[in-house]
């Protein structure tokens, strides 16, 4: 009887030992294995995340500065360790370069227009380096329209060439020579003005007016010339009329039924009184070339130059400042 009791006692002790061992094993598993892979509460408690006391916003920074000043204590300052892989950028410099180069490809970057509500084009200096012309484009969110003004200003010829251009104050001494869409109440219409180039004698400025409609995109491009001697603007609509007439009479193609446009290239180097334009019709993936045309700045006579060739000599008369990185 006593022997049986002793055996039962031993079995109870062994059972308790096994239970304690299993509990200990379970505890070790959570601490050493599960906590590392499953991010348990015990692991979080044993391995607290590092605390970042640096200010996250400028408001927090200024609050910390004021608090530190009141308590006369230091606040943590950011540290920057230069990475050996970082490459120092060369300093940018301004160079005077020809404006209409390549010919006909000068456009105004309108990507930030809706955000900034106003952007300026590149200032184009006359061949005599005594005048500058540029445009400003304005965006009106309430009507989803854009208007533009073209300005002309005199440069201080007593200054060095680069200095007179760099220090040209855009808002001083300028005069408006043309305004587009500034007073119109039409919705969704945008009109922008872009300088094409000065004439070789510095007495005329060719520029283009792009008219677009939000749902349909670009409508048309108008070619205009400002004559400094007369102070008048001439819209050279005759070149568009000549192109439509030619294709209607010779090829029975009514361009008014299609989306087509002109692309002013610049002043003709062989005939300084004429401006060269290319014309294209939208015909799917590849536009149809409608020929190279030219027109005199009076608007008296438009002329077909070629239906196939695009290689013509275009003068580059105006200059502008461009940023270039120097090694």
Q: What's the layout of helices and strands?
A:
Blueprint: H1 2-38, H2 41-46, H3 58-71, E1 92-98, H4 113-116, E2 118-120, E3 124-125, E4 131-140, E5 145-154, H5 161-166, E6 174-180, E7 189-198, E8 204-213, E9 217-227, E10 232-235, H6 238-251, E11 260-267, E12 274-281, E13 288-296, E14 302-306, E15 319-325
Antiparallel strand pairs: 1-15, 2-4, 3-4, 4-5, 5-6, 7-8, 8-9, 9-10, 11-12, 12-13, 13-14
Can you walk me through this structure?
- Helices cover 25% and strands 34% of the residues.
- It is of the alpha+beta class.
- The N and C termini lie far apart (103 Å).
- The model is unreliable at 19-39 (pLDDT under 50).
The fraction of residues assigned to DSSP E strands is 25-35%
Structural class: alpha+beta
The total number of structural domains is 2
- Morphology call: globular
Regions with pLDDT < 50 over 5+ consecutive residues?
A: 19-39
Mean pLDDT: 79
H/E element string?
HHHEHEEEEHEEEEEHEEEEE
The Rg value, from CA coordinates, equals 37 Å
**CA(first)-CA(last) distance:** 103 Å
**Number of beta strands:** 15
Count up the helices.
6
Helix content: 10-25%
Overview in brief:
The chain has helices at residues 2-38, 41-46, 58-71, 113-116, 161-166, 238-251, and strands at 92-98, 118-120, 124-125, 131-140, 145-154, 174-180, 189-198, 204-213, 217-227, 232-235, 260-267, 274-281, 288-296, 302-306, 319-325. The protein is of the alpha+beta class and 327 residues long.
């Amino acid at each position: 009887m006593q022997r049986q009791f002793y055996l039962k006692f031993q079995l109870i002790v062994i059972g308790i030992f096994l239970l304690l061992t299993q509990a200990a094993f379970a505890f070790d598993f959570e601490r050493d294995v599960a906590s590392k892979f499953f991010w348990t509460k015990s692991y979080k408690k044993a391995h607290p995340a590092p605390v970042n006391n640096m200010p996250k916003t400028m408001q927090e920074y200024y609050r910390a500065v004021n608090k530190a000043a009141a308590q006369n204590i230091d606040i943590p300052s950011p540290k920057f360790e230069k990475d050996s892989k970082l490459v120092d950028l060369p300093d940018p410099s301004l160079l005077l370069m020809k404006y209409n180069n390549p010919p006909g490809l000068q456009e105004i970057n309108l990507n930030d227009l809706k955000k900034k509500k106003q952007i300026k084009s590149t200032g184009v200096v006359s061949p005599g380096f005594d005048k500058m012309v540029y445009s400003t484009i304005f965006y009106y969110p309430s009507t989803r329209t854009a208007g533009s003004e073209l300005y002309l200003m005199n440069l201080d010829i007593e200054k060095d060439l680069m200095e007179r251009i760099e220090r040209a104050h855009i808002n001083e001494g300028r005069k408006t020579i043309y305004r587009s869409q500034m007073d119109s109440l039409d919705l969704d219409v945008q009109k922008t003005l872009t300088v094409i180039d000065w004439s070789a004698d510095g007495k005329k400025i060719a520029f283009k007016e792009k008219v677009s409609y939000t749902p349909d995109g670009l409508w048309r491009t108008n070619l205009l010339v400002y004559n400094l001697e007369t102070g008048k603007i001439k819209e050279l609509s005759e070149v568009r009329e000549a192109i439509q007439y030619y294709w209607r009479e010779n090829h029975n193609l009514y361009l008014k039924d299609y989306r087509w446009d002109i692309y002013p290239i610049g002043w003709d180097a062989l005939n300084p009184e004429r401006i060269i334009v290319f014309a294209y019709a939208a015909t799917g993936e590849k536009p149809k070339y409608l020929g190279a045309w030219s027109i005199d700045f009076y608007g008296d006579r438009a002329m077909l130059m070629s239906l196939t060739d695009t290689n013509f000599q275009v003068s580059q008369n105006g200059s502008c400042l461009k940023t270039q990185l120097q090694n």
